[in-house]
Amino acid sequence: MRTDSRATAASPGRAVPRDTKPVPVDSKKMPADRSVPTIAPEVEAPASPSVAEPISLLSQEAASEFRSRWDTIQSGFVDDPRRTVQEAAELVEEAMARLAEFFAEKREHVKREENMATEDLRQTLRHYRLLLNRLF
Questions:
Q1: pLDDT, tens digit, for every residue of 2-53?
Q2: Burial of 14 by CB count in 10 Å (0-12 exposed, 13-18 middle, 19+ buried)?
Q3: Calpha distance 80→3 (Å, rounded)
Q4: CA 70 remoteness from chain centre
Q5: Strand pairing partners for 42?
Q6: Number of domains in the chain
Q7: Which of 44-48, 97-101, 115-119 is least confident?
Q8: Is residue 53, in this structure, part of any structural domain at all?
Q9: Residue 111 in domain
Q10: What is the pTM of this model?
Q11: What is the dihedral of CA 114, 119, 136, 10, to 10 degrees?
Q12: Average pLDDT in the chain
């Protein structure tokens, strides 16, 4: 790559690449205004450089329903912002309640099953990690 030796205000004294091209952005990995990030199914980043395994917190059907409702709610903002924000808050509360149920069931299952298989425990831990990674 050829560089331009002229300094810029952002990088005084540093060479600037002449033929720099924009880096493509994967819009699927970036949060969109229409997404519900804590419930939408995604591929979780692997802990090591191995192949990513798909993991979802809710079923495809439930995630699709939440996304569809979000799209409908969001489209009403221009006409009635206050109502739209109230409906969005209700949808978020419902999504959080659904997630709370999901994790409560997992927690109860772990408590009940004293001899739970290591693979089942690993999957449960992956779900916890996925949620926390999406929140933080």
A1: 444 444 444 444 443 444 444 444 444 444 444 444 444 444 444 433 345 5
A2: exposed
A3: 52
A4: 15
A5: 55
A6: 1
A7: 44-48
A8: yes
A9: yes
A10: 0.56
A11: 160
A12: 73
